[in-house]
Write a structure and sequence with these properties.
- The protein is mainly alpha-helical and 290 residues long.
- It has 13 helices and no strands.
- It has helices at residues 2-23, 30-51, 57-84, 89-97, 105-141, 146-150, 153-167, 173-183, 186-200, 206-230, 235-245, 252-259, 264-289.
- Helix 10 crosses helix 13.
- The protein is globular, with a radius of gyration of 18 Å.
- The protein starts with a helix and ends with a helix.
- The model has no long low-confidence stretch (mean pLDDT 89).
């Protein structure tokens, strides 16, 4: 229990800090800080951690490939269930498919499995981010948009890190230090912004949000367990995969729903309900993994 508490306490306290900050009426420029995270912090974190390799490159490639399969699995199963439930795909499929592998998943991977876990968690997060800005946009709008992907700094950070790893180039110390420093603020701000989002979002239709939240968490855990078994993953890789798959819907789903006018209130309800349920189930999930 002490080990689980040491993992969860930083996550809960940081998110609670963001929630309490907003509840006390303090100003929080979420747009500015979200931009700082997505345009500077996250790309620098991805580049610095992937180029300063702490795990086998082949294992990192496997994790990225399995992440693609995981989100494909979530999309297919989620699509079938939503069709049977007669719920609109362009509103609910993305929240079922794309979990919070960044704001919530990365800190948990770091605290539960150390630097090796964070590196593998970043591989999963990178794939999730790329798919959100391509397949995700197609789900929300009905048309693919690679222009959105090209405007995403995370994509360029992944390309740059991949070229460095593929070529065996040694990153200059000043670049490594600079990206490591700038990437350092990403995880704390991700958690604080998660708490702010929970304070701002509202649940409109409780029974639907609760039902889809339970479905998302069960689908994520079951899918992660199945893929870890099929690919014979063990140790840190197994833990990271199941943990990342089990995350609640990403807050980005609400932002996309608002941008494309796809019932943002409904999506907000799912994000809030599923995140709170996830907080309640995380001790049991970590006990199972550890």
């Amino acid at each position: 229990m002490g080990e689980i508490a040491s993992i969860l306490a930083p996550v809960f306290l940081s998110a609670a800090l963001g929630w309490g900050w907003v509840r006390m009426g303090r100003p929080y420029d979420r747009d500015l800080l979200s931009r700082l995270i997505s345009d500077i912090g996250a790309p620098c974190l991805i580049f610095s951690r992937l180029t300063d390799v702490v795990v086998d490159l082949e294992l990192m490639a496997w994790m990225a490939g399995i992440a693609v399969l995981a989100m494909t699995f979530f999309g297919v199963v989620g699509g079938v269930v939503l069709r049977l439930a007669r719920l609109p795909m362009n509103t609910f499929l993305a929240p079922v498919t794309f979990g919070n592998a960044g704001n919530m998943g990365l800190p948990l991977c770091l605290f539960a499995f150390g630097d090796a876990g964070l590196a593998l968690g970043i591989c999963y997060f990178a794939v999730s981010a790329l798919l959100q800005f391509t397949v995700g946009v197609w789900i929300w709008t009905g048309r693919a948009s690679f222009a959105e992907l090209l405007r995403t700094p995370v994509a360029w950070a992944i390309v740059a890190a991949s070229l460095v790893l593929w070529s065996g180039t040694e990153v200059p110390v000043w670049i490594q230090n600079a990206t490591d420093l700038l990437g350092g603020f990403a995880i704390p701000l991700m958690l604080i912004t998660l708490g702010v989002s929970l304070a701002d979002l509202r649940v409109e239709t409780l029974h639907r949000a609760l039902g889809l939240s339970v479905f998302r968490l069960a689908l994520g855990f079951g899918g992660g367990l199945l893929l870890a078994h099929l690919f014979a993953l063990d140790g840190v890789a197994r833990g990271v995969l199941i943990l990342q798959c089990s995350m609640p819907p990403a807050v980005f789903n609400y932002l996309f729903a608002s941008r494309y006018q796809r019932s943002p209130e409904e999506v907000a309800g799912i994000v809030v309900c599923c995140t709170l349920l996830s907080f309640a189930t995380l001790p049991f999930l970590l006990a199972f993994l550890l």
